[in-house]
Amino acid sequence: MGAVPESTPPPRPAQPPQPGASAVGLQSSSPQSSQLPVGIMRSSVRGPVVNDGEDSTDSTPLLQGARQAEAAPACCSARYNLAMLAFFGFFVLYALRVNLSVALVDMVDSNTTLAENRTSKECADHSAPIKVLRNQTGKRYQWDAETQGWILGSFFYGYIITQIPGGYVASKIGGKLLLGFGILGTSVFTLFTPIAADLGVAALIVLRALEGLGEGVTFPAMHAMWSSWAPPLERSKLLSISYAGAQLGTVISLPLCGIICYYMNWTYVFYLFGIVGIFWFVLWMWLVSDTPETHKTISNNEKEYILSSLKNQLSSQKSVPWIPILKSLPLWAIVVAHFSYNWTFYTLLTLLPTYMKEILRFNVQENGFLSALPYFGCWLCMILSGQAADNLRAKWNVSTICVRRIFTLIGMIGPAVFLVAAGFIGCDYSLAVAFLTISTTLGGFCSSGFSINHLDIAPSYAGILLGITNTFATIPGMVGPVIAKSLTPDNTVREWQIVFCIAAAINVFGAIFFVLLAKGEVQKWAVSDYHGHKN
């Protein structure tokens, strides 16, 4: 990882621009550019492309004539240390987010309003007899299916509020403090979950919304940090490593929560992960810096490599170009893709444990392991797809936009197909788990698709852009569980087929929209001195 791609013969020097003409305009008419395939460029030096219009031809980022510093080794480097600490941060973040999904199964009295909370009888009971005596000391609550839907969705009411402000603040003061205190706040609130549940549904909903406020700043803050830390040809690797922690957090926390609920009681789920989050915060504040310039132990070689690779990609203007940002079609392509992907992701994230219990009829211990299996596949896919994406760009000279489109198509169309298939195989437990696992696994390709396209089109404002797209992408987390619960009042296989088909259709639409309108080069509004760049 982090190795310099083999250099290819440098192109012939471009003709100097005529007075009054932009470099962008000359590139499209130069004989050299007309001989190159669309979307593929070859050069021994890399830099940004600035798009002088929404409809210009995309190409791999280049900066003709710029001196490129030798790539610093990845092993023990400051940028990969940041990626690993971010990995564990998002591990904790998603453990704090999904723990309620499993604990809620044990928190609710199964006898509450049988018409709404009963387990489906369509499928045979798959749970094997458990000989170990189960701990049942945890308090049970009389919450019907609709109430459970609002509790699960309440997190996102706070989460949606801090997305854009989080991106804006991170662009001004850096992401270190914002990300650190966001996770710390969520961890502290998590410790109070058992008390809030005792106080009533309203108190628990408010507490979960407050947790959402803390988590809402985290992804924009991380994107803002990577705009200063990630060399363009290592973006897929570094971001996929850091954000893959979210998937592994789901993988570990779902079965672990099931075990804790089974052998202890559900209250310990919140105590454990709250304490882990506080411990991570201490490490983060001690070891991380906002930029390479302020890092205390980074080598001069690595610092020069990062700064030179990002030269001319970042804007020097202090004001945020809000109007051009909101008018940018490539941004709206990411918005639609992000919204569509999250509809499926959040529906499964919050309701998969319930589906396992009430349709496939696994007990809470098996439920945790099998609910986590799809996210293990997604975690593995994210890591591998990040490596593949950057190799395609660096070694095979595939254009950035081509890579983003291909990975987004695989990561959205593939899950849609297998999600529908999972709904139509009935009570075949093995196939149901296999199809749900494949569906979620393929979604990992999106981590190198639309998920990091913000950094391609506007590195300086990546945090703000992610805040905008994640604001829209949070809506499925708010309404998805509620709609799914309302569509499955009797918990029948046919009702869940409708839930899966709706999610699949939204996924397909988002993938097509992104492919048609997405871009892979720095947009003209994202740099203040773009007239000096060559497209």
For this entry, give a set of tags.
mainly alpha; disordered N terminus; symport; disordered C terminus; Growth Hormone, Chain: A; transmembrane; 2 domains; 535 residues; MFS_trans_sf; 2 strands
Overview of the molecule:
It catalyses: 2 nitrate(out) + H(+)(out) = 2 nitrate(in) + H(+)(in); L-glutamate(out) = L-glutamate(in); L-aspartate(out) = L-aspartate(in); D-glucuronate(out) + H(+)(out) = D-glucuronate(in) + H(+)(in). Residues 7-19 have a biased composition (Pro residues). Residues 1-38 are annotated as: Disordered. GO terms for molecular function: symporter activity. It holds the Pfam family MFS_1. The protein has helices at 23-29, 31-34, 78-107, 114-117, 145-159, 163-173, 176-191, 193-199, 201-216, 218-229, 235-263, 267-287, 300-309, 322-326, 329-358, 364-394, 400-423, 429-442, 453-457, 462-487, 493-517, and strands at 50-51, 522-523. Mean pLDDT is 82; it is low at 1-48, 52-67, 113-117 and 530-535. It folds into two domains: 75-114 and 133-311, MFS general substrate transporter like domains (Growth Hormone, Chain: A), CATH 1.20.1250.20; 321-534, Growth Hormone, Chain: A (Up-down Bundle), CATH 1.20.1250.20. By secondary structure, it is an all-alpha fold. A two-stranded parallel sheet has the order 1-2. It contains 21 helices and two strands. The protein is globular, with a radius of gyration of 24 Å. α15 (329-358) runs parallel beside α20 (462-487).
